[in-house]
Design goal:
Blueprint (H helix, E strand, L loop, with lengths): L7 E11 L2 E7 L13 E4 L2 E8 L3 E6 L1 H6 L8 E6 L18 E11 L2 E7 L2 H4 L7 E4 L2 E4 L2 E3 L2 E6 L1 H6 L10 E6 L1 H15 L1
Antiparallel strand pairs: 1-2, 1-6, 2-5, 3-4, 3-6, 4-5, 7-8, 7-13, 8-12, 9-10, 9-13, 11-12
């Protein structure tokens, strides 16, 4: 479990293909790895991955073909938002994030709006119903608040701090982003559907 509050921006240092799967070496940048051990989870661009090996300032993870299919992937030398798994004693500064990407969105607009930037994303049709104004959504692992919703499109304001401390500053129109909708919305839909079926 994660919060969507990014702790460091790392880089994919190496990609070792293993048939349809791959092992990645992630340069952890300023992420403190002193309390990380093999078997621990780290969210990389919003994808919960298991650490299989540790270096002095890096860690390795195995990525399955299914993960590549459901996400934007991990190109070599690409920047990745990093967050270690939540501990029960941690502050919940964002919202509860599982690290299970629900789908891939497309950036339609990314431009200055005063001191901030406006980001407009098109969600896949089956996810759009879970996106609500003033609700939470995770974009490349970053917990964000939705400003407006128009059909399958939604907009977000990104403050300078978010742009400085995540990889979202690299976005541009046509960029693909990992999306995870608020898990509470999924539970609510399941409860309502179950009630209607009984």
């Amino acid at each position: 479990m994660f919060t969507g509050i990014i702790q460091a921006v790392g880089k994919v240092a190496a990609v070792e293909p293993r048939n349809a799967d791959a092992r990645l070496v992630i340069d952890a940048a300023h992420l403190d790895l002193s309390d990380v051990a093999p078997g621990d989870s780290i969210a990389c661009n919003g994808v919960c991955l298991t650490v299989v090996a540790l270096g002095a300032a890096s860690f390795s993870v195995d990525v399955s073909a299914e993960t590549f299919r459901c996400t934007t992937g991990f190109p070599e030398h690409g920047l990745v938002n990093l967050e270690k798994a939540l501990r029960l004693s941690d502050r919940l500064g964002g919202h509860l994030v599982s690290g299970h990407v629900d789908g891939v969105g497309e950036v339609l607009h990314f431009a200055p709006a005063g001191d901030c930037f406006e980001l407009v994303i098109r969600a896949p049709g089956d996810l759009a119903r879970f996106v609500v104004s003033k609700g939470s959504i995770t974009v490349n692992g970053v917990s964000l608040t939705v400003n407006r919703v128009d059909g399958d499109r939604f907009s977000i304001n990104l403050i300078p701090h978010t742009l400085e401390h995540t990889n979202l500053h690299t976005l541009q129109p046509a960029s693909r982003v990992n999306l995870e909708v608020d898990m509470m919305a999924r539970y609510a839909e399941r409860i309502l559907n179950y009630r209607d079926q009984t």
